[in-house]
Structures are given as C-alpha cells and as structure tokens.
Amino acid sequence: xxxxxxxxxxxxxxxxxxxxxxxxxxxxxxxxxxxxxxxxxxxxxxxxxxxxxxxxxxxxxxxxxxxxxxxxxxxxxxxxxxxxxxxxxxxxxxxxxxxxxxxxxxxxxxxxxxxxxxxxxxxxxxxxxxxxxxxxxxxxxxxxxxxxxxxxxxxxxxxxxxxxxxxxxxxxxxxxxxxxxxxxxxxxxxxxxxxxxxxxxxxxxxxxxxxxxxxxxxxxxxxxxxxxxxxxxxxxxxxxxxxxxxxxxxxxxxxxxxxxxxxxxxxxxxxxxxxxxxxxxxxxxxxxxxxxxxxxxxxxxxxxxxxxxxxxxxxxxxxxxxxxxxxxxx
Amino acid sequence: xxxxxxxxxxxxxxxxxxxxxxxxxxxxxxxxxxxxxxxxxxxxxxxxxxxxxxxxxxxxxxxxxxxxxxxxxxxxxxxxxxxxxxxxxxxxxxxxxxxxxxxxxxxxxxxxxxxxxxxxxxxxxxxxxxxxxxxxxxxxxxxxxxxxxxxxxxxxxxxxxxxxxxxxxxxxxxxxxxxxxxxxxxxxxxxxxxxxxxxxxxxxxxxxxxxxxxxxxxxxxxxxxxxxxxxxxxxxxxxxxxxxxxxxxxxxxxxxxxxxxxxxxxxxxxxxxxxxxxxxxxxxxxxxxxxxxxxxxxxxxxxxxxxxxxxxxxxxxxxxxxxxxxxxxxxxxxxxxxxxxxxxxxxxxxxxxxxxxxxxxxxxxxxxxxxxxxxxxxxxxxxxxxxxxxxxxxxxxxxxxxxxxxxxxxxxxxxxxxxxxxxxxxxxxxxxxxxxxxxxxxxxxxxxxxxxxxxxxxxxxxxxxxxxxxxxxxxxxxxxxxxxxxxxxxxxxxxxxxxxxxxxxxxxxxxxxxxxxxxxxxxxxxxxxxxxxxxxxxxxxxxxxxxxxxxxxxxxxxxxxxxxxxxxxxxxxxxxxxxxxxxxxxxxxxxxxxxxxxxxxxx
Lengths: 330, 603
Fold this sequence. Notes:
CATH class of the domain at 224-330 in chain A: Mainly Alpha
Helix content of chain A: 40-55%
Order of helices and strands of chain A: HHEHEHEEEHEEEHEHHHHEHHEHH
Distance between the termini of chain B: 135 Å
Oligomer: heterodimer
Distance between the termini of chain A: 36 Å
Shape of chain A: globular
Number of helices of chain B: 19
Radius of gyration of chain B: 46 Å
Helix content of chain B: 55-70%
C-alpha cells in the first residue's frame, strides 16, 4: 500500500510538470489551463467560451500534445452532419470483388476531440455528441463501438456572433463538466504572445505523460476523502440554484427557471478532490468546492424569461449563492 | 496452519483496529476542543449581545437618573432587571452558540485550517477507513496539540466597550441603584403654627356652640370627646416640630369623628308618602303634612301643637271634631306599617278620637310636637357638626396648601367640565343653581340668581333657551324651564307669561300660577284653607271633602332650594372620596375644594 503522502506529492509533481510544459505553448491563462486539466483529471468534458483569437483551439492542441493523446478536430457548420463526426458505413469491395459495408470511423475516435464553434452545428449534429460524451461510445446501426480511453471533448463557442447559431440544449450543456470563459489576455501577456508566436515556428512541446498515467492520476484523485458536512455543503450549493428549493436565494427564485443537475454535484465533488490534492490535502475543504463552483455550475443554471431579459449573469448569481449558503458545519 | 494470506489478513485487521481506536480517541479529543470552543463562542456572543444592548441601557440609565433628579426613585426590585437581563442574554448566547461541528468549523475558519478539524471530526464519527481519510486523521492528530484556541478566540473586550460598560455601571449606580433619600416631613413654620392655633381656637369655639339639648348621653359623650380632641389640637399647635402630615392626619381624624356624629344625629324620621298624601287632603292636617314633607320640623311641630290645641278647645264644634276624626281615620288607614313618630302619633290620636277622647288625641299630637321639636334640635346639631367637619378639613388645606383664596386665583379655563376636580379653580362667579357643578356661564344661559328678576317678575321672550335642564315641574313646558328659577305649577307658555308678567309687573304675572321664583329663596308658605266642607257630589258615591282657599296675592317659593342638589352631589362626592385610597395631603386638598364649594352653595 502506497503512502498517501507520497501519492499526493507525486500527483502534485506530475501536475506541475504538465503546467510547465503547457506554459511553453500557452501564454498566461494559468487559471484556464489549470481548470482544463482539473476537468480532464476527472474525465470531464470542457466547454470553452470566448471570442475568436484567444487561443482556444491552440490550447486544445497543446493539451493533446503534452498529454500524449490522439487529437481529432471537428469544425462545426450548419451543414455538418452527425456522420461527419461519428463516421459512417461505406461500401467496401474486397480483393474478391465482394462488397461489404464497413464503418468508417469519424474524428470522434480520438482521445481528445476538439469541437470548434459547437453552437454553429445544427441540433441534430449536436445531439450526435450526447452518447459520445456520456457513454463514451458510438452506436451505428446495431453496433456500439467504444471510444479510446481516456476520451475528452473540448468544445468552443463564440458568444458574440450569435447569428446562424444553435444554442446548446440543456442536456448537452449538462454533459460538460466545466464551462470555462476565456478572457482576453492582459497587456504583459499580449507582449509575451507577440514575442513568442510572431515567428513561423511553433514551440516544441513534448508529451509529459500518456493516457494511461492520466487515468491513473484520475483514479488517485477519486480516492480523496470527502466528509459528510462538505458533501452537504456541495449539495446545498446545488439546491440553492433551484428556485423551488428552500436554499434558493431571492434572485434565484425570481430569475432562474432550472438549477444544476446531480451531474453538477458530481462535478463539484470530483473537481474539488483534484484541487484538494493540488493543495496537498488528503480531504476536500470548502475552499476547494468554492474554487470550482463557478466553472461547474454556470452553464447548468437556466435563466427564465425574466432572467434573460434582465441579462442575469450566472457568475454573479453563484457569487450570491456562495455568500448565502451557510458554511459547512454551521 | 498459517498461510501467508492468513497472516496478511490478520495484519490488515490489526492495522484497521488500531486505526479505529486512534480515530475514536481523536473524536473524543475533538469533542473536547469543540466544547471548549463552544464555551468561548458563547461567552463572546454574550459580550457581543451586551455591547449591542448598550445604547438601550444608556438610555435607560439616563432616564433613571433624570427620574431620580425629580425626586422619585425606581422601585428596589428594578435592580433585579440587570442580573435578569444578563442571565437572559447568557441563555440566549448559549443557545445560539454552535454545536460540535459548527464550533470546529468556526475554529477552522479562524485559524485557516481548511476544514481540517471539521473533516477529522466527520471521519472519526463515521469511522472512515480510506487511506486518505486515515491520513487526514493522522495529520489532525499531529496538528491538534499545536492549536491555541484561547489565542484564536480571545475573550477580552475592546477597551472602548469596557469603557462604555464602566460608564454604564456608573450611571446605573447613580440613577437606578442609588436609593432615593426619604423626603423629610415638612415642619410647620411659626406662621403656620400661629394660623393653626387661631384656627384651632375657632374650631373649639364652634364645637362649643353645637346645641346639645336634644342629644342623649352617649352622643354628648362623643361630642365631649371631640371637643377635648380639638382642645388638645389647640395645645399641640404650640409645639415646635409639628409636621404637616401630623396636622393633616389629626384634622382628618377629627373631621371623620364630626361627620360620624352628624350622621348619627341626622337620622331620618319622615313619614311615608301615603300618610302625608292623606293628611294633605284634609284642611286641618294639610299644613302639618306640608311641613313634614318639606322637612320643616319647627313648622311641623308648631302645626302639631296647633292641632293639639284645637282638639283641646272646649268650643270644638261637632263638625270640626268629625272632620278631624275623619282625617285622622283616613290617614291611619293610609298608613301601612310606618314606624315614624308622626305615623305613631296619628294612629294614637285616631284611636283616641274613635274612643271619643279628644283630650287623649290632643296629648298624642302634643307629644308629636315635642318630638318634632327635639328632632329639629338634633338636626341643628347635625348641621353644626357637619359644618365643623368641613371647617376641620378646610383648616388643613388653608394651613398647608395655600393662603386663603389661592384656589380662586388660579387662571380661569384650567377647570375642566364634569365633576369638580381637586386643585382646580373655582369659577369667578358664585355657583349658579341650574348649571351643573363645574360648569360656568354659557352663552344663552339665564342670568345668575343674583341677577335674575325678583319673584313674580316675568321672563322675557326666549328667556332660558339653550339652557341646561332645570327641575321639571308639572304643568310647565319643560324645555323652556330656566335655570336658576323654578316655574310655578300651572304656568302657561313662558313667552306669553313672561311678556305679560313683564308688562304688568304683577307678582305672578297676569295669569294665576305663572311666574318664577329664585331657587335659593324661602320655601312656599302653605296657605291656610279659608273653608272646608263635606259635600255629596254625586248620589251613591259618598261624601267628598271640599277645601277652599281664598285667592290672595302671595309669593310662591320652591319646596326645596335648588342649591340643595349640588350640595347633595358634593356630599356624595365627598363620601366617595373617603373610600378612595388617596394620600392625606391630596385628600385634604380635595376636601378643601369641596368645603369652599359648599360654602358658596349654602344659602
């Protein structure tokens, strides 16, 4: 039996190594990178939201390289069909001239799938990702084909250009562990970006770990202890997003139609565990849960008509919830 | 046989058991820490509540200090409010202090332990045996001795709060807790003692003037005792150091004695209405009955004596004798168990007349005359005693409260309507009968008695409109009855009568029975019938007695002075006052008011 202290130390070391390697390809955005890694260490999918040109696609590519994972990319357009993502049966003629149907795998059969501008795909195409993200398999006809493990979907969407887009349905959104907002870089970061990427040679990145090690770290993170008061606190946070629950704040009751699902609670606990390990602790603290609350809950809060009309910002709502819900043990 | 697998399982089990024991021990230690933290939190919360309530206590203490400056003090038990308040908020603080988990979470937050203690308590409580949970417990076990809860949750109050508490304590001691010094009784000064001596002399003189001829031995003894007490008060007035409460108390006691004696002397002996009514129907006994009804005992005695002498006369005609016999017989029949002296005398005289013995009947009536005369004397004595009692009360008031007449000098308008209040100003004018006590003149009221027309003078048109209700008299139109004067029965419309009276300036006006009399005037003198005869008005209906009164100019008066009504009310108020638990000084002040009122009302 390995000493938990050494396990925690090893986890932290490996994570730090990943961060350092990623930093070679991505300037700034440390929080974003950390959140992406945290989500991936819980086998969670990530939705990246930001205006074009902030390096969302670059981040995914860097991640695939550093993690040593196979990379697939889908550029969503309104005429993109599910078969373009999942793959399709094609007629194949063998050497003897016999024709058989063969399933030609789509780009989804990679460890890391970048779904660029996901909200430009039609709902039909978006729905093709539901099974992929939850069951990690593709069903074509009567045949189900598992995806390679680990499997992650990192999708991007542009919040500005809304014309010709199809907002993701709630079921789709709920399958993303985190929704991360990509902020515009600061002045110093812009200078660094200019210095580093104005040439024609990309930074040479080397894989720090492979998929197997990533899965092993995921299993380690799942071992982190969560006490009942902390689990209750996380549950209260989730319940506070529901307008019909007693924990709900007045703003939630007024402006929210639906709150976070149990998947939201799972995400809170799982990602908090990773943060606890990163802090060198063997048990989750309330601070870990608060740290991931925005990323895990912001896309799971569905505003009602009044909320949308008032332009309710889910992040501010979560701030209010964090202030209102009593701390653990209180 | 022990295999390697068995050995490994045993070792694992032993490790698990050791871990469970350690977890239990840690849980106990954590509970101890939590209890300690809870106590400290409760005390801190208690302090916070005290500080939160400080403004209210400052306000209360300031109020108590102000109240004390005015000479009053809060009751002694109010001191208990402070420990009671402290106890209540202590209980409140203890109830609001967090439980074990909350206390540990609070300590975690205070010391930035990232829920170390809370998680440890939860893991040990549910015996979590995961490797990470065990590691957490181990770390907590190592960290626990290093925790300093006293430093994390200090109990010291900030200096400004301590200063505020000290200031509050000072205020409370000076304003709330300090006993109010007893007010020393006010000692009479030389002027007051001199005044008291003068008043006591007058009281002694008045007491000596009370007629005693009709008093029995016991009553005389009581009067003697009262006189002795007054003489003692005369002597006491010379003593130095005599205090106001002593004087008031003694005067009040003497006044009560005088009133008791007056009540004893003034016992009613009025015959019943049926007997009087029957006597009034007969010419020979009408005057006696009228005097008895009016309460004029002296006149009633004279009438009884005249009747007695009439019966004793040798020249009493048969007609007169029969008439008297018939009157007495009917009166005796009308009497139904009346035990008054008049009723007894009438019964006795009637029996004597029935037996043909007018002399015996005359004797009974003579006895009645003597009895009435004696009762008149007792009534006079009772009046004197009542006057003495009032004088005793007014003496205390005059002596202690203000110089004589100070009450009437109070600014007008300070007096409220309704029942007269002690300490309020008297109206500048004399009390006007017909107005309710406590009311002054109003627009539309008639002139005061002193300003009203003489008896027999007519009233002008509209006179009396808008006035308070006077005494209703049968035969008058009630709404036009004017206050301060009583319409005579049989009067017509006041406007016409008044106009006629004014025009003719004849007593009673141009119509018989029309006119007004002063309320405070003498009672109407019953007129002597000019002749009385027995007639048979209708066959078979028996005989009727006909009394004739010859018409003549005369003055009508009220049977009862209107001023008696407010006097009766004042008496009733005064009796009610005696039953109320009032301070002696206050009682004396109100009594003084009543006395002054009575003096002004009495004719």
